[in-house]
Design a protein that fits this description.
The protein is an alpha+beta fold. The protein has six helices and 20 strands.
Length: 374
Amino acid sequence: MYRYEKRESKLKKFFSTLVLVVVVAVTSIYLYNIYLNINVKSEISKSTEQGTAVRLSTEEEEEKNITNTLEDTTKCVVGISKIKNKGDSIFSTDATENLSLGTGIIVSNNGYILTNWHLAGNKYSSCYVTLENGTVYDGSTVWADSDLDLAIVKINANGLNYLELGNSDDIVIGERVYAIGNPIGIEFQRTVTSGIISGLNRTIKIEEQNSSSYMEGLIQTDASINQGNSGGPLVNENGEVVGINSVKIETAEGIGFAIPINIIKPVIESYASSGEFNEAYLGIFAYDKEVVKYLNNNLEFDSGIYVVKIMADGPVAKTNIQIGDIITKIDGNEVNRMSELRKYIYTKKPGDVITATVRRNNKDYNVDITLSKR
């Protein structure tokens, strides 16, 4: 009996110890798992916080880069001024009131300035160019095109900082852009406004002095563009010029327009490298299908440009091309806007022969044209 009770006592102790060991083991495992979960969550939280910090740092860095880019860009923006009333002196006490102030862009280190024709005037006109440091130069217009509302002015200066020209063919709707200019006058020189590309290849009607004309192929933006912004740059986030601010619809808010930079690139590059530009002359003016709707509601065509004027002294006048013909191609390249035709002709020289594909009465003809000097 005694041996039996002793054996039973040993078994109870054994089972009690076993239960205790199991409880301790289970408790330890449970507590260890809780610790792991807390640690993992902590690491995830830290990782998330670090990730946010990295993103914020990147955004701040990008904003800082854009700010620095725009600061450098504004230094290459100039004031363009002309005396409104003949005989007035720019040095008079009321000079500010007597000047029409606009904007220009330094596009070469040797003193070539890009601006609007309505600011600089025709070839051989004079104007005043004010640099960012306040230095004023006499400027002379060396090239101008009233239809494009563009002009190139030369000042006697070298070693200038200048703006890089972007590729306006690559811009897309929604892209961030910045307009720089002198929107009101000298009190607000080099104002920067931001916006996006709102539209491409826009055509607008210009009413002035009892006559109307059309500008086509324009960039539309919601960046604020006021009267004095004319001639200033429309730049992308890299500080590259993609357009030249030109006109604003005064009856609508938040709608501004710029001329694509690519159309004038060959002219700028020629002047910057050689000091001259031998402009080839075609002697024709045509409208695209969007403009023709304003002129003749019954006229419809899918592609090409509609010839509305042939200059008597131009090369086209010596061919059988007529008013009312539709030019669909130049040297095999499709042409759907007058600006595209101009851009192509700017790459040519006087004496070059081009081939125009002309549609008349639903039939196509090829016409060779020898370009002359403008």
